[in-house]
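Dear Dr. H.,

I hope your travels went smoothly. While you were away I took the liberty of generating a structure for the chain from your last submission, since the lab meeting agenda had it listed for discussion. I wanted you to have the full record in hand beforehand rather than looking at slides cold. The sequence, exactly as received, is reproduced here:
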Amino acid sequence: MKPRPHPVPAGFVILPPVSPFFRTLGKVYVRERPGQPPVYGLHVRPKHANRHGTGHGGFLATLADTFMAAFVHHQRREIGTMWTIRLGMEYKRPAPMGAWLECHLADIRREGAFVTVDCLLQTGPAENPVITNKATAVFKVTDREPA
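The corresponding predicted structure, in token form, is as follows:
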């Protein structure tokens, strides 16, 4: 018997795919609130599983990298293009099948042409989250041309 996915929490809406690769992740959601960074979420599905039936480590790293790039574009509007030059992942706990998994911005810093972002992947209720992963990415960035 397959585990039933947890419900999508209130305030989340489907995020349209930003690339063909992004589409392979399945339905991705975002919750935006004025003055706060967005929160991204999705359900851990069978296509995301490792051989143990939990979220595959490569899938979780992909999510963290993708969502941290989205945080940069949301928080730092002056940035045009960017690419990942370093990605670090800490695997704290498995992401269970069917779980609602959220990505939260922990910190963002810019030093010249480099932006460092930290995020947390978590499951469970907002009042008592379970951290599954901590991730850090360094992006090389170029600014948008002035309008």
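Two observations you may find useful: The mean pLDDT is 92. The two ends are 56 Å apart (CA to CA).

With kind regards,
E. W.
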